[in-house]
Amino acid sequence: MKRMIKPSIPEHSDDPRVTIALTVNGETVSRTVSVRMLLSDFLRHELGLTGTHVGCEHGVCGCCTVHIDGKAGRSCLTLAVQANGADIRTIESVANGDGTLHPVQQAFKECHALQCGFCTPGMVMNIVNRFEEPGPLDLTDNGIRDMLSGNLCRCTGYINIIAAVRRAAELMGRA
Amino acid sequence: MKPSLFGYHAPKTLAEAGAILAQDADATVLAGGQSLLPAMNFRVAAPSALVDIQHVEGLKGISIKDGAIAVRAMTRHREFELDEQVRQANPLVAEVMQHVAHVPIRNRGTVVGSLCHADPSAEMPLLLTLLGGSVIAQGPNGAREIAAEDFFTSFLTTARKSDELVIEARFPLLPAGAGWAFDEVTRRHGDFALVGVGCIVTLDAQGKVQTIQLAACGIADRPVRLTEAEAMLKGSTLTPDLDAAANASLSAVVAPDDMHASASYRRRALKALITRMVTKAASRVRPGAPS
After folding, report:
1. Separation CA B131–CA B174 (nearest Å)
2. Tell me: the pLDDT tens digits for A29-38?
């Protein structure tokens, strides 16, 4: 039979490679990577942390949001080499080791704030970080919409996500 | 959606960074990457090399000196937005910052990077133009100060030479007692402005305009000071002259129709924003108050 399917992935790459060392979810990791590897691909393909989702790869959808040195940021708009020496936190670190959900995750569950769930890791990482920032939170509808404005959801229509952020504030004593 | 191949440098000193830029005219400076990396992922931009300046000594932080806020090259938008000293010294900054993309983008993107990217509808170039600020470009023969009006030369183009690194931007403080306002029209909150307008005004004891600065973004290939309207409003009591001044600004709209808005829509948005921003800025004037 004629072979129709033929992989075209090159077996080796001539990309310049750099060895990077960084902390991911508290663990020190070191890898030698292509200079053009995005942090999102590094987390997913090099480390197998596939909870960080890749949607648009140009910074619009927010699905790939992780914490970079304690601040929420787009892992698709960060090169892995830029994260050399950085402290990265992904969705895999948010729930407790025993499986107990983080209050933001608990609130998303209670309020039915996810349907397909593709955008959820980015939403959670963004909101968790906003709750970690000092200073008052604007928990009006407009304030929460502003907090969520960098994350797209194509299922829910956002209403339950807004409710979940408010519920998370209650659970965390920030309401 | 992956970038094409490039060389990567992570210099530790200004001299090292300068040497790489001097050697390779197609190398690009990487700061926060929030405009550059999308362009590279789309392969709209394909620099030969990236000079990642995040580890370069002395490029972090904000200081207030000589009547201006000095923002170093690696200072993130969010730092500029939340800095308490900046809020006191120039409340216009925080008002503008609300409109720059979203918090996770502001956490990474840098103020100076946005200036150097020079998107004609972006807020940072408008803010620098409105305030009459400047940037400091470090080149092989030393540093030079470039005024905002000379820095933004065209669409995504600045007066920075390929062997120069912009190390600082200087945003002047507001005049004593001045009122300020900024707003923009966008398709969605956080998007680039279709039109944005900023205004800074001081009034004399009789309520007449003492000084006025008015600027817009999204209407041309660079941010624009609306000097004709400024001249018409100076010395006026605002209300009777505002309509005419706004009308006189409409010829500044030279951006062609695009997928987001027609030129005629931009003119209508510009007129509405000028009227609102001048009025709002005037309502915030604190006569006799220290700056």
Report:
1. 8
2. 999 999 999 9
